[in-house]
Amino acid sequence: MALNVGVVGVGKIGQEHIRRLTETLAGVRVVAVSDADAARADEVAARVPGAKAYPTGEELIAAKEVDAVIVTSWGDTHAAYVIAAIRAGKPVFCEKPMATTEEDCSAILDAEAAFGKRVVQIGFMRRFDTQYRAMKETVQKGAIGTPLMFHSVHRNAFSPGHFKATMAITDTAVHDIDIARFVLDDEPVAIAVKAPRGNSRAGGVADPLFTLMDMRSGALVTIETSVHIAYGYDIRGEVIGETGTVSLAEQNEVVLKVNGAFSGRVFADWPERFDPAFDAEFRAWISAAGKGGAAGPSAWDGYVATAATLAGVKALASGAREPINLRDKPALYA
Amino acid sequence: MALNVGVVGVGKIGQEHIRRLTETLAGVRVVAVSDADAARADEVAARVPGAKAYPTGEELIAAKEVDAVIVTSWGDTHAAYVIAAIRAGKPVFCEKPMATTEEDCSAILDAEAAFGKRVVQIGFMRRFDTQYRAMKETVQKGAIGTPLMFHSVHRNAFSPGHFKATMAITDTAVHDIDIARFVLDDEPVAIAVKAPRGNSRAGGVADPLFTLMDMRSGALVTIETSVHIAYGYDIRGEVIGETGTVSLAEQNEVVLKVNGAFSGRVFADWPERFDPAFDAEFRAWISAAGKGGAAGPSAWDGYVATAATLAGVKALASGAREPINLRDKPALYA
Amino acid sequence: MALNVGVVGVGKIGQEHIRRLTETLAGVRVVAVSDADAARADEVAARVPGAKAYPTGEELIAAKEVDAVIVTSWGDTHAAYVIAAIRAGKPVFCEKPMATTEEDCSAILDAEAAFGKRVVQIGFMRRFDTQYRAMKETVQKGAIGTPLMFHSVHRNAFSPGHFKATMAITDTAVHDIDIARFVLDDEPVAIAVKAPRGNSRAGGVADPLFTLMDMRSGALVTIETSVHIAYGYDIRGEVIGETGTVSLAEQNEVVLKVNGAFSGRVFADWPERFDPAFDAEFRAWISAAGKGGAAGPSAWDGYVATAATLAGVKALASGAREPINLRDKPALYA
Amino acid sequence: MALNVGVVGVGKIGQEHIRRLTETLAGVRVVAVSDADAARADEVAARVPGAKAYPTGEELIAAKEVDAVIVTSWGDTHAAYVIAAIRAGKPVFCEKPMATTEEDCSAILDAEAAFGKRVVQIGFMRRFDTQYRAMKETVQKGAIGTPLMFHSVHRNAFSPGHFKATMAITDTAVHDIDIARFVLDDEPVAIAVKAPRGNSRAGGVADPLFTLMDMRSGALVTIETSVHIAYGYDIRGEVIGETGTVSLAEQNEVVLKVNGAFSGRVFADWPERFDPAFDAEFRAWISAAGKGGAAGPSAWDGYVATAATLAGVKALASGAREPINLRDKPALYA
User: What pLDDT sits at residue D157?
Assistant: First the structure.
């Protein structure tokens, strides 16, 4: 009765998902893995009892024992695997970005629409975070009146060696863009990106960035990304409504009072901050995939995120406010 | 490779543990259940795929397919099942109270000492709570100097219909007593219980209670139990050291600002507050039991908790400070 | 039109009050000072434009230009000066303790009752603190139901060289005792004091202390005094009612996030914490004294504080719960 | 020895300042008032013992008994009075805006520079707020590294009947603009203003506004003004540096726990929030003016605030980023 999962792409994130599925969560087994690096696929398979390495993602997707697929390969390759899974009628969990071009995203939308049923779930784990869910619920029930602004703050202590300024949009702000859409239940129409005085710790790339995203309703989303801020991983958010606001509460375990000060710990990095959200995300997926479907963020959400971040990259280069022209939304996602 | 578990006593708590083991956690299966109410055992077994109902706990414990045992029957019956499991060499998780008399507790200690290895784990889930663990770690590393006091506050919105004042000690304060021992790494020597002005919502029983427990080191533990306080389930704690203090941080998801006030939610009840701790507790047990052992709170901890709460019950009646005379600690628990 | 004030006793506290009256507050002048140390009186008078030194407090009180009197001499001498002021019909502000014996307190009560009008105000400045006032108001309007307990915490970073354990009751806990009466609108009937494991920084005297005070209504007041706790000056308080609680909010200016932690400053000492309360206390006094009366804490409050702390000193020595037997309350204080 | 003050313009703000000077603060007397409405001047003078009404501000400024001047007339008239005071060599406290045109501001700068000594103090009271002072100090000592951004939030529950969108810049954001300059020790170079989805409670005017101000160093200042947000008066601020952040702590008196939630009060309006800052501002002024000078915000600060807000008004209309071209800074303000 457990869900038998195949994982396409077993780099760092893929392995982390395998660990979560095999060591933490109930009702799921990892039965197949594949990777562009065949040796790595073999090595990972050897460590996961019951898992077999496949030479290609396509073969893995086609394999009989595979009930559902997780795509954690490089972003450029996502679309092909996701479409293959859709065509095979197999539920597929795809890490963000769903695809790196609007064309690839659109192809996925068309494939899923043609299949006629949602089978794609995108890895926007924040949608499963209890804090953001409480925020959305607060907005939805009208507690703060019509939402007018959303201030999102995304801070990382450091960024990987290969960091480029555009990644602060495509890899970092993408989460804020998606969660703003989720919380506000609204779509973006334009985006502008400012590069303030740079952090000297950022090795010459533009950091921080300050993004302004206009929503269809007129609501304004602001996003601060500071990805070399040293002190920790800090995700802040506040929705401003007509009559009140709702913001993410600070989280910490204990408060220490010593030496003339009170203090508490800030999260070190995202795996720690969002660990329960990752659990919840996969629990929802395992349950939905077990019934042949998907939960939470859809291919449409993946598409809009890519469209918005690509417009953001353009806006960073141009210095101008760039439109986000979304294609028509297939009825499947209504 | 999954741990095959039998559950003795499938009332509310037992069923909740079964749900957690089968729907939430990896690496475990529930293969056997028993209950004083045979119909209930059958009914629960019917709902858990792969589980078989046994007429008695003894037969369940003896069953070949049972690797490890969970005891969630009525408190008075715990000792017999726990001792049977020890003698069968099977890891056993026993809900608190480990037993309701010091004699029964002592018999368990003797049985486990005779077996020569820890196989008993007691259900003090707070020891797996990240907040208390951070508190203990803070104390242990000397951040606040030598601990001198521990203020613990235990509030329930309401109590069950069958509530008696002594239950605020044996069922409520028992958690605070155990966690104070855990955080301070100290043993109780005496206990006094005051009954302040009573809550009119408590239906005539003495509530709140204020307990003072003296520790071997001289440290003072104070415990407020307010079990009809209406506003929510609220667990507060602060350790006062020579140079500083450490306290449990407030937890909440979002902060709302409306109508001239900021506000946030308080937990409604203990399953919500300690849900992640229950997960962590059983993860630790599954892992340890898989190796034939136990993790976290031991039979000794179960014994001291019972001894201290029984002295507390006596103190409530006498109005005096009652000694807590602990037996010698078997070397197994050193 | 300004109030002309004479100050009896110009040690540290007296000089601090003179500074506040002359440099900070409107509507008041210091026109006379006296001190057991005549040279000190001369010196202080020389620094305060318009102030004259008197050889004795009695002469100062009798002086024509003195509208109202502040008594900040040693505690043992308070009663004589306060009674002299009452008999002169002059409003008198007396620092706590109002007197050091119940007899002296009683003599003041009798004198003021005979005078027939409140002219005595005692220096319990917490009653003018906006936080405690909000707490009292919250309780009074029934927001938490009937109050059942009050937990008060009084922490000093260090204590003066001449500190004795009894001072933690008479000089420290006295504030908590008074404010508990104020917030709960209740009177004490008994007191017990426990001395937990001692702080090694306390130089051999018993610190911390944990005091339990029973109120007439049955409400329980607990008071932790930790007067060598190094980290700062920290005043905490929480009232526990039948349906909720109200507690003093933490106060700080800015929150810093650096090095993996958030942090903020704790007050260093009481002058900083209660500076606005001292301003408010004297504003209320200046206004009331200008009309020949007094505001806030009365001679009765001064008496009960002394009676309770003396019982507390006895309780610390005896280890027993000591009764607080209050005399009849003159109608003046009803 | 008290400072004798004349107040030009005794409308609401002028009367409030008179109340503070006469009823709250030491060392100052109000001896003269004037107003465009002569009857109002007479009426106010009649209520302030020792105060005389003058037919014009010019005569008041020239009056022998007037040591120092407070200008609280309508903004358009400020410059003439301030310049008259400078020429009379009298310290002058001028409410914001210092003047409503850059020309008038410049004339004040020239007059004070010609006088050769600072005698003008502008009413940016936030500079005397303990929270902002702690924030500035934190930044100055390098605790968060070089500052890169400042997020300021300015919320009013409601706005007066005559509110226009530009007032959210000239009357509201002007405070944020000034305090950002103060905290960052930096000057603005350009400003842009966005009008998000409007608050339906704002009666058709654009509210909220979101302002982006670029500083000379490259630091970015963002200012949210929401002036019909109903829930209260809320001033938030955070400086983001290279290695950390510092933000204004939340302020409240008590925390209430009832009905499943904790809660606390938000300030109702600015007089309550900044009352201690107003006291501190005037204490500093009384002290400095007593020595013939001025403290805190200078005429230069008044000028830059006007220049920046006028550029902001232009930016709101144009939708573009408008430069803020500051004149040369006289050596007096170096």
Answer: 97
Give the pLDDT score at C160.
Answer: 82
Residues C255, D246: C-beta atoms closer than 8 Å: yes
Q: At what angle do helices A299-318 and A174-184 cross, to 10 degrees?
A: 120
What average pLDDT score do residues B132-150 get? 98
Contacts of A133 in chain B (CB under 8 A): 253
Q: What percent of chain D has a predicted confidence (pLDDT) above 70?
A: 100
* pLDDT per position as a tens digit, D257-276: 999 999 999 999 999 999 99
pLDDT tens digits, one per residue of B147-185: 999 999 999 999 987 888 899 999 999 999 999 999 999
DSSP D98-158: S-SSHHHHHHHHHHHHHHTS--EEE--GGGG-HHHHHHHHHHHTTTT-SEEEEEEEEE-S-
Partners of residue C244 in chain D, C-beta under 8 Å: 256-259
Let me know: does D201 contact A243? Beta carbons within 8 Å.
yes
A53-87 pLDDT, tens digit each = 999 999 999 999 999 999 999 999 999 999 999 99
Residue A164 in this model has a pLDDT that exceeds 90: no
Burial of D89 (0-12, 13-18, 19+ CB in 10 A): exposed
The partner residue sitting opposite B231, judged by closest CB among D230, D232, D257, is D257
Cβ contacts (< 8 Å) between B253 and chain A: which residues?
130-131, 133-135, 248-249
Q: Which of D245, D257, D259 sits opposite C257 (nearest CB)?
A: D245
Residues of A within 8 A of B252 (CB-CB) are 249
Best of B200, B212, B240 to substitute, by most chain C Cβ atoms within 10 angstroms, is B240
* Nearest-angstrom CA–CA distance, C100 and C299: 13
> What is the torsional sign of CA C60, C61, C64, C65?
positive
pLDDT in tens, D199-244: 999 988 899 999 999 999 999 999 999 999 999 999 999 999 999 9
What's the CA gap between A246 and A212, in Å, rounded? Answer: 19
Q: Across the interface, do B151 and C196 touch by the CB < 8 Å criterion?
A: no
> Do residues C231 and C160 make contact, with C-beta atoms less than 8 angstroms apart?
no
Size of interface A-D (CB pairs under 8 A): 102
ipTM of the complex: 0.96
- Is it the case that residue A1 has pLDDT exceeding 80? no
Min Cα distance B143 → chain C (Å) is 11
Question: Between chains, do B260 and D265 touch, taking CB under 8 Å as contact?
Answer: yes
Give residue-wise pLDDT tens across range B269-306: 999 999 999 999 999 999 999 999 999 999 999 999 99
Q: Do B232 and D266 touch (CB under 8 A)?
A: no
* DSSP 3-state of A212: strand
pLDDT tens string B43-87: 999 999 999 999 999 999 999 999 999 999 999 999 999 999 999
Three-state helix/strand/coil letters over chain B: CCEEEEEECCCHHHHHHHHHHHHHECCEEEEEEECCCHHHHHHHHHHCCCCEEECCHHHHHHCCCCCEEEECCCHHHHHHHHHHHHHCCCCEEECCCCCCCHHHHHHHHHHHHHHCCCCEEECCHHHHCHHHHHHHHHHHCCCCCCEEEEEEEEECCCCCCCCCCCHHHHHHHHHHHHHHHHHHCCCEEEEEEECCCCCHHHCCCCCCEEEEEEECCCCEEEEEEECCCCCCCEEEEEEEECCCEEEECCCCCEEEEECCEEEEECCCCHHHHCHHHHHHHHHHHHHHHHCCCCCCCCHHHHHHHHHHHHHHHHHHHHCCCEECCCCCCCHHHC
Give the per-residue pLDDT at C136.
98
What's the mean per-residue pLDDT of chain B? 97
List CB contacts (< 8 A) between C255 and chain D. Answer: 246-249
